[in-house]
Amino acid sequence: MKQILMLFIVGCLVSCGASKTVRDSKKVMKGNWTLNSIGYSEKGTYNVTLLNDVSKACFEGSTWQFVPNNNTGIYTINTSGCETGDRNFIFTIQEIDSQTGLYDFLLKPTNEKHKSETNQGFRLRLASLSDTIMQWQQTVSVDGKPFTITMNFTKI
Hints:
InterPro entries: Kunitz_inhibitor_STI-like_sf (IPR011065). It comes from Snuella sedimenti. The chain is built from four helices and ten strands. It has 156 residues and is an alpha+beta fold. It has a single domain (18-155), classed as Lipocalin. The chain starts with a helix and ends with a strand.
C-alpha cells in the first residue's frame, strides 16, 4: 500500500513540472541571439510596430538574451536612428507539440514604458529551434485575414 501511495505521489510531482520537451527547448534557447530578419506572409509594404515598441527596421539586428531558469530576458535595440537600449521581458511557455518540441509562448515586456501603456503580452509561436537558429511567428489579423510575421534569429 505504501509503495502504491509513493508511486502516486511521485507521478503527481512529475506531471506538475515542465515536460522534458519544454526543458530541452529552454536549454537550447538559453543564451544570446541576434534577430537577423523579419518577414511577412503577404507581399507589400507594411508599417509594423513590433511588441508595441519599434519598427521592423529597428528590430532587425537587435540582440536577445534568454534566461530560461526564471523565464526572463533582455532585448537590445542598437540600430542608429531608433530608440536604442535594453528592454526587459518575461516569457511563459505553453507546449503544443511534444513530437517536435515546438510551442506557443507569451512574451511580456516589463519595462516601465510598456507597463504604463498597455501591460499586455504577445502570443508567439516557436516555429523552429536548433542549436544555431530560431524562428518565431506571430499571426495577427489584417483586414479580417490572417497575417503572419516571421522573425529569424541566429545564436551568437
